[in-house]
Design brief:
Radius of gyration: 14 Å
Distance between the termini: 33 Å
Strand content: 15-25%
Helix content: 10-25%
Strand order of the largest sheet: 1-2-3-5-4
Oligomer: single chain
Number of helices: 2
Largest sheet: 5 strands, antiparallel
Length: 116
């Protein structure tokens, strides 16, 4: 279950610790170690998937589950009704620094636009 050297695979496998906020059989959610907002949670699949660009038709249910979990975590973190942002970077030019699909959940303050 994972790719050698992938930090998120290690977190998903439980061999590296993280401040977990959600865990089920397909995804985990944990607090970012370098938060960009008062609430900054990463939601990742336990199975290694390099990016959203690497996802295929067989991953559609997993992608939907990632966003459902993000919504549930946002509610649990008290970000509703004020709002929150979900960010998915794909590739280095977009700012993806870990080659494992992850959704950033950001909230708890006013978020500017455009983000980049």
């Amino acid at each position: 279950m994972g790719e050698s050297g992938c930090i998120f695979c290690a977190i998903g496998a439980g061999t590296m610790s993280a401040d977990m906020v959600h865990q089920d059989d397909r995804v985990i959610a944990f607090r970012d170690v370098a938060p960009r907002a008062p609430v900054h949670v990463l939601i990742i699949p336990k199975r290694h998937l390099a990016s959203v660009d690497a996802a295929g038709a067989e991953d559609e249910e997993l992608l939907g589950h990632l966003f459902s979990v993000a919504r549930d975590v946002a509610r649990a973190e008290g970000l509703v009704p004020d709002g929150y942002r979900l960010v998915v970077n794909s590739g280095p030019a977009a700012g993806q620094t870990v080659d494992h699909l992850h959704v950033h959940l950001l909230g708890g303050r006013e978020l500017g636009w455009p983000p980049g």
